[in-house]
Amino acid sequence: MSENPAVYRPHVALSTSSLYPQGVPETFEAATRLGYDSVEVLVTHERMSQLTHQLLDSVQKYQIPISTIHAPTLLFTQQVWGKSWTKIQMAAKLTHQVGAEVVVAHPPFRWQRKYARNFVAGVREVSRMTDTKISVENMYPWRVAGREAVVYSPHYSPLGQDYDWVTWDFSHAATAKMDSLAAVKELGSRLGHVHLTDGSGQTLADEHLLPGHGVQPVAQTLEYLRDQRWQGVVGVEVSTRKCETPEQRDEWLAESLDFARRHMTPTP
C-alpha cells in the first residue's frame, strides 16, 4: 500500500467482522475515529455489505477507503449471492467498484465437490479474467464425533497448494496448531493479505483473540513482514462480542491497531 518503498508504513484495516453483530456503518465510524487506514468488508446477509452505492456513500461520508472485500464463502453465508463461483465473481466485481485491492476467499468445503474439483485453477482464472487479487485463506480442521476431520478441499492449509495469493489468519493457525512465522516465510511473495488476530491453541474453536493474547508468534511475524517491507494490508479481525460496553470494544480495537503499528513500523 505504501507508494514509496523507501518510506515504509504498515496499512491496517478494520474488518466489519470485528464489530459483529453490529454492521457496516458502525465499522466505518469506528475505523475513522480510532485511526485505521481502511475498512475490510465481509459480505454477509446485511444488505449494505453487498451494495456498491451504499458502500461508496460510507467511503465518502467517513473519508476512509475500502481495501478488502471478503467473499461470502463462510458456512453462515452460504445463501448469499447464490452459487459458489458466483460469490467469487461478484466479490471481484465489487472489489473493483468500491476501489478495493484484494478479495479474501475461503477454500471449498469437501461436500462442494463440483466447486472443489478445480478450485485452485478456477481461482487463478477468475483472478486473471477480472484482474483481481484473490487471496485464499488458511483454515483449520474440525472435530466431528470426537475425531479430527478435514472438511476443506483441497486442504485447510494453503501451504503446498498452488495459489497465487494467500491470506494468513493467526487465529486459524492457532486452531490448526501451525507456526505462523514459518508459514509466512514459506509463502514468501505469495502472501496477499493478513488477518491480525490470535488464538490459544487449546481448542478447535475459531477464537479470534486480540493479537498478543494467544500463543501464535504474531509480533515476530509482523516484525518479519516489516523487515521485508511487505506491501499488503493487515486486516484486524478480532472478536469483540464479549465486550461489556462500547468503550471496552473501542479499547480492544485500539489495542489491536497499536499492536500492528508497534510491530510493523520501522524504528528511526
How would you sum up this structure in a few lines?
By secondary structure, this protein is an alpha/beta fold. The chain has helices spanning 24-34, 52-62, 84-98, 113-117, 119-130, 170-175, 180-187, 218-228, 246-264, and strands at 11-15, 38-42, 66-70, 102-105, 133-137, 142-144, 147-149, 166-169, 191-196, 233-236.
CATH architecture term: Alpha-Beta Barrel
Give the termini separation. Answer: 20 Å
Taking Cα atoms only, what radius of gyration do you get, to the nearest Å?
A: 17 Å
State the shape.
globular
Q: Low-confidence spans: pLDDT under 50, at least 5 residues? A: none
Major sheet: arrangement of strands: 1-2-3-4-5-8-9-10
User: Quick one: biggest sheet?
Assistant: 8 strands, parallel, barrel
Structural class based on helices, strands and sheet pairing: alpha/beta
Helix tally?
A: 9
Order of H and E elements: EHEHEHEHHEEEEHHEHEH
CATH class: Alpha Beta
Could you estimate the helical fraction of the residues in percent? Answer: 25-40%
Q: Averaged pLDDT, please?
A: 94
CATH T-level fold name: TIM Barrel
CATH superfamily: Divalent-metal-dependent TIM barrel enzymes
Total tally of structural domains = 1
In percent, how much strand structure appears in the residues?
15-25%
What does it look like?
The structure is a single chain. This protein has one domain: Divalent-metal-dependent TIM barrel enzymes (TIM Barrel), CATH 3.20.20. It is of the alpha/beta class and about 270 residues long. The strands form 2 sheets. Strands 1-2-3-4-5-8-9-10 form an 8-stranded parallel beta barrel, surrounded by 5 helices. The two termini are about 20 Å apart. Helix 2 links the parallel strand 2 and strand 3. Helix 1 packs parallel to helix 2, helix 3 packs parallel to helix 5 and helix 8 packs across helix 9. The mean pLDDT is about 95. It contains 9 helices and 10 strands. Pfam families: AP_endonuc_2. This is Xylose isomerase-like TIM barrel domain-containing protein. Keywords: Carbohydrate metabolism.
